[in-house]
Amino acid sequence: MSVAARLSPGGTPVVRVRGLHKRFGDLEVLRGVDLDVRSGEVVVIFGRSGSGKSTLLRCINFLEDPTEGTIEVAGMELAGGYRTRRKRELVRQLRLRAGMVFQQFNLFPQMTSLENVMEAPIRVKRVPREQARAKALALLDRVGLADKADVHPIRLSGGQQQRVAIARALAMEPEVMLFDEPTSALDPELIGEVLGVMRDLAAEHMTMLVVTHEMGFAREVANRMCFFHEGVLLEQGTPEDIFTRTRHAETRQFLSAVL
Question: What confidence score (pLDDT) does residue 6 get?
Fold first, then answer.
């Protein structure tokens, strides 16, 4: 039985996106996106390069300010547009609720794996150092890297660095995890170890929004798949819907190219 089949997401959405537009000058990257992600749900976002997938995640975490629309994460709603001093503080609070894992690992090179995972809880949440250290060690163990706690990123493989990055995001105890093509920078033989950690998180009912081209992972783990095309959420459904009963020619064309 797949991970997705064991999950029964329900209740109030953890993430609610309404009327989301994002423009960079004259280029409109997102064009009126509406999306809900419920507690315990794994939603896979897929589509061609430039379709707006990564921009969606960056808007949810306010790494990019939406041009129009609203983002709600764990009950905190923010509108796009001009960022005031008050809004900057609300953005900071929202980011505490949404952990993000990037294509590139973005670890601090001067810090060990353990220090990378401890840093944000200490600096942002003011967690006592020993408490943060104990939590970081437990998270490194959770991602299979307990023996790499004192190792610097340069001495880790790409897959190991990405697993440290996942542990670092989990250290903030987010309500939802956002994964932006987390395996795209990895050699093929290292992809499986990162996807394995993500499968474990899904089995533990972590709410996840994942941008990926790993269709095998999506088929196994996703509750829902969302196909983006030219800045629009063109089609969504269960993996079975998408792989066997897709309604749009653009979705079929994309799947035929990647499967």
Answer: 39
- For 179-226, the pLDDT digits (tens) are 999 999 999 999 999 999 999 999 999 999 999 999 999 999 999 999
Taking the chain, what is the end-to-end CA distance rounded to the nearest angstrom? 22
Both structure tokens of 210: 């994942």
CA atoms within 13 A on the CB side of 13: 15
pLDDT at 180: 97
The structure tokens 């419920």 sit at 38
8 Å CB contact between 80 and 67? yes
Cβ(121)–Cβ(129) below 8 Å:
no
- Asked if 211 and 235 count as a contact pair (C-beta separation under 8 A), the reply is no
The 3-state DSSP class for residue 229 equals strand
pLDDT in tens, 41-78: 999 999 999 999 999 999 999 999 999 999 999 999 99
- The answer to whether the CB of 21 falls within 8 A of the CB of 32 is yes
List the structure tokens of 9.
């997401």
Give alpha helix (H) positions in 14-147. 53-60, 85-97, 113-123, 129-142
Contacts with 115 (C-beta within 8 Å, 6 or more apart), sequence order: 108
Residues 6+ apart with CB under 8 A from 212: 44, 45, 46, 179, 181, 182, 183, 218
Q: Which percentage of the chain shows pLDDT scores above 70?
A: 95
State the Cα–Cα distance between residues 222 and 206, nearest whole angstrom: 12
Please list the residues that pair with 79 across neighbouring strands: 70
